[in-house]
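Re: that chain you flagged

S.,

Sorry for the slow reply, it's been a week of failed gels. I finally had a moment to sit down with the sequence you sent. For the record, here it is as I used it:
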Amino acid sequence: MENNIRAIALDVLIKIEQNQAYSNLQLNQTLQKTNVKDIDKGLLTSIVYGTIQRKNTIDFYLDQLLNKPIKKKDRWVLSLLRLSIFQMIYMDRVPDHAIIHEAVEIAKQRGHQGLAGLVNGILRKLQREGTDEMDKKAAGGAERAALTYSMPQWLFERWSTQYGNEDAEKMAESNLLSSPVTARVNTMLATREEVLQLLEQEGVSAEEGELSPEGIIIKEGYLPDTEVYKKGLVTIQDESSMLVARSVAPVQGETILDACAAPGGKSTHMAEMMKGTGKIVSLDLHKHKIELIKKQAERLGLKNIDASVLDARKADEKFELESFDRVLVDAPCSGFGVIRKKPDLKWSKTEEDVLKLASIQKYILDTASQMVKPGGILVYSTCTVDKEENSEVADWFLKNHPEFEWDPEFSEKMPENVRTFILDGRSDLQIMPHYFNSDGFYIAAYRKKTTGGEKHA
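Prediction finished late last night. Pasting the structure tokens below so you have them in one place:
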């Protein structure tokens, strides 16, 4: 099975590399389609995510270990070498000689004796010599930090500029840790205590979360296989993400717009907070993502969600202006707050992407804001840590929309342990991954004035 796990991990990595598939989706599909034992799911996940997380550091070593480039038709061997080097350097579960033996066997089965010899030679050299001499060839400053924390140099430099070197390093380091599995209790069906007891009966170890009264942290066990999950008592969601619905603070019977709703975690959370009353209008650009929202709502027993395909930038063409009590814009973003869950993001995104996204975010926010009733609430959120997509967009919006003000009740909606991160005179919050071992998330909340304030042209 150990060899099988590594062969499966190789398949996942090849598909991610060749098809630009999202790592989390590809891994989840593989776990569903293969008969990997529960006890080995953690190992498979660690190898796949870890190999992607440490990609540029591993490639730094590979460049020095390889005497000549690998032929294009044999590019899969690079993935095999990467996952093997990752295990040798960063994991201690299996001894080096076993890792090398399995890699050689996989190379024989998938290729030929020559490739097996190449793999054996490179990995034996690493085993003999280690990385000390290779590490000396790294430069200093941001270049060394990029290798130490395995991330693009431009991104580390950007974080250092925005938050200072110390926070940049803490964030980079936390992104190399495995992400805890957290879930939100469906309080329409059960209390958190009841869910914890039911999970224990199913052999899943869990405990109360730190940021949300509905949050739980899974310590051991595979949640999607449980009856608790299948019966809709829980939804897998990061604790930082749970704060978004709390900032919207929907009231029973209201009409809420979730402008960028897929895959539905925040829509379903708000629907649960409203005890199935009122209506959540959930929009997304893609039909298959709308189907995800509908499936989530069905599993959770929620009938107050109306999900439909629509570009949020065209919301004013379908809905009456000022027709929603509260509006959430969980905008498309770079995703740099969820690197632990989607490590491929740091290699696929560019600095130019951030600039383009900020423009889209402003467009969506501008349109969605017109849907808010006077006295209503508008919340802007992202799962990134980049100031250009977060506080700079939030400040731009307030400057160009004098009909809005900061939500005066924002602080009291937030858990006490995060209120210290809210600056005086503002109603926004930036959570970093290293604060609570959760995703990096940004939330800004506004209230539409009942009188006065004309929107700038």
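What I noticed first: Residues 141-174 form one domain.

Talk soon,
D.
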